[in-house]
Amino acid sequence: MSQSTVPAVILSAPQLAENIGAVARVMANFGLSDLRLVRPRDGWPQERAWASASGADWPLDQARVFATLEDAVADLTVVLATTARPREARLPVITPRQAAARLRAESALGQPIGLLFGGERAGLTADDIAVCQAIVTAPVDPRFRSLNLAQAVAITAYEWRLAEAPDAPAAFRSGPAPADQAALRGFQAQLESELDGAGFFHPPEKRASMVRNLRAVFGRARLSDQEVRTLRGVVTALAKGRGRVLAKLAAKAGEPEPPGDC
User: 94 and 153 share a domain?
Assistant: First the structure.
């Protein structure tokens, strides 16, 4: 069985060390580490890149420098060019999400893959694009198509990561298990009984639909056992409070009228 691969990020003629560091930070966010630099303007390494990476050092520590783009992509079987200017290339133009799906399919086959990004000033040239198999273009506003280098990497890297792990982050999935149906039905029966006593279900012919709506609310909430117990306590407290108020009103109604003036 083939082992899946992870895209290389190739920067063609990057200019600012700060931008290279910002790219490394984005790569670390989304699980990428293979950074390849083609003719960086100010040479390599550059300390300012590490400062901009804010601790995401490993893509920078492992970065490789190449004299030509052809050398940088020589071991890759699929390279996608990211640009808003296709420059008349006869290549398919796809979105970052479609690019992620294609890269995932190639990755599953064990194919070495890469994403190519141009320099800050002019982007990719026609010759750069010619070594690629497709063009990736984000659906940006046509009035201003230019993306910061790290932003462009972030969009494509995010889509790559999302294609691998489409579920919500673990922090939103963790926590106590939902209450079972018996516990939930017990709470709903208690609530409905008290609402009946308070005259909430009016007119009577609409009671069934009102009950269904209430049950749907709590069904969607996926309450835990503790939350169900808390809500049952809330209903009990409200019912007792209402009972005390009614008792006081009844007692007051039974008191004799105070004597009038003679």
Answer: yes
